[in-house]
Amino acid sequence: MLPEKDLVRFRHMLDSAREIVEISKEKTREDLEKERLLNLALVRLLEIIGEAAVKVSSETKVNHPEIEWQQIIGLRNRLIHGYDSIDFDIMWTIVCQDIPFLVSMMEKISKDS
After folding, report:
1. Distance (Å, rounded) from C-alpha 73 to C-alpha 70?
2. Does residue 64 have an active-site annotation?
3. What is the pLDDT of residues 18-31, one digit of tens each?
4. Is 76 marked active-site?
5. Which helix (H) or strand (E) holds 5?
6. Which of the 8 DSSP states describes residue 32?
7. What's the whole-model pTM score?
């Protein structure tokens, strides 16, 4: 069972991840380059996931090593501090591969809690 504060953070992460999946569903890598609003939306949602991950307790992070906490937090830091040099190829891979996996892992954890 997740502590209440962590459950709230999980919901923020999961909601943002689901929104990324929905927004990017009919899009391509080229759209990410061409559509400024798509780009901004995805970056912001990834930042939210990372910021919520920062606030999840150490205990929960240890209990759920299947979530790549440090990578998620590192991505948040990179997006915020390196906003002027985002690699869209890497970002698109994260959006298409890592985020759907994150959704499935978080749904399982939430269901078990």
Report:
1. 5
2. no
3. 999 999 999 999 99
4. yes
5. helix 4-24
6. H
7. 0.94
